[in-house]
Amino acid sequence: MHGVLSVTSDDHKGIREALKARLTGVKWQRCQFHLQRNAQSYVPKVSMRAEVASAIKDIFDAPDRQEAEHRLSQMVERYRKRAPALAEWAEENIPEGLTVFDLPASHRRRLRTTNGLERISEEIKRRTRVARLFPNESSLLRLIGAVLSEISEEWETAGAYLNMKNDRPATSIYRKEVA
């Protein structure tokens, strides 16, 4: 693989190891949806769940990284006594969901979660469910390849997923030929 500038994933150990081993220097964005969901297991009372979810959403909706980090520190202080495990978890894990602030603002919405990848997986499942039985592995791979080609072509021709040419990067993660 080449030209990879950013990866968004959940906190899967294998993915993180692969990034360190093969994609050194590539920015990693932890899926904000998964972070939001993971945080709920550190909330000590059910009655606090909506409040905590709102606080985390507020961090992710900040206009820039500096403000997001400020909101995170406020959240950590707010919960340090009432929910110490949550405060400790948030301080350690939520910064992994802030990498998206290094991307152009127009890209952040699409790259902050793994929704795009999960949508592709759903489309593959939907199309393979229709066929149900495959005579061999290569016939399955042909169908999946066709589905992925369709999606890729749609993204390339529609130009609506991410426009890499007209956006100014927030930092220098994009190479000069792309910016």
Short description:
By secondary structure, the chain is mainly alpha-helical. The protein contains eight helices and two strands.
Please write the string of helix (H) and strand (E) elements: EHEHHHHHHH
Number of continuous helical runs:
8
Number of strands: 2
- The parts where pLDDT drops under 50 for at least 5 residues are 169-179
How does the overall form come out from the CA principal axes? globular
Strand fraction equals: under 5%
Helix content: 55-70%
Determine the oligomeric state from the structure. single chain
* Main sheet attributes: strand count, strand direction, barrel closure: 2 strands, parallel
Main β-sheet, spatial strand arrangement: 1-2
Structural class: mainly alpha
End-to-end span in angstroms? 20 Å
Overall mean pLDDT: 86
Radius of gyration from the alpha-carbon trace, in angstroms: 19 Å
Describe what you observe in this structure.
By secondary structure, the protein is mostly helical. It has a domain at 31-109. Helices cover 56% and strands 4% of the residues. It contains eight helices and two strands. It has helices spanning 13-22, 32-39, 49-60, 65-79, 84-93, 105-111, 115-131, 137-158; strands spanning 6-9, 27-30. Helix 1 links the parallel strand 1 and strand 2. The longest helix has 22 residues, at 137-158. The chain is globular and about 60 Å long.
Task: Produce the secondary structure layout.
Elements: E1 6-9, H1 13-22, E2 27-30, H2 32-39, H3 49-60, H4 65-79, H5 84-93, H6 105-111, H7 115-131, H8 137-158
Parallel strand pairs: 1-2
Helix pairs in contact: 3-4, 4-5, 7-8
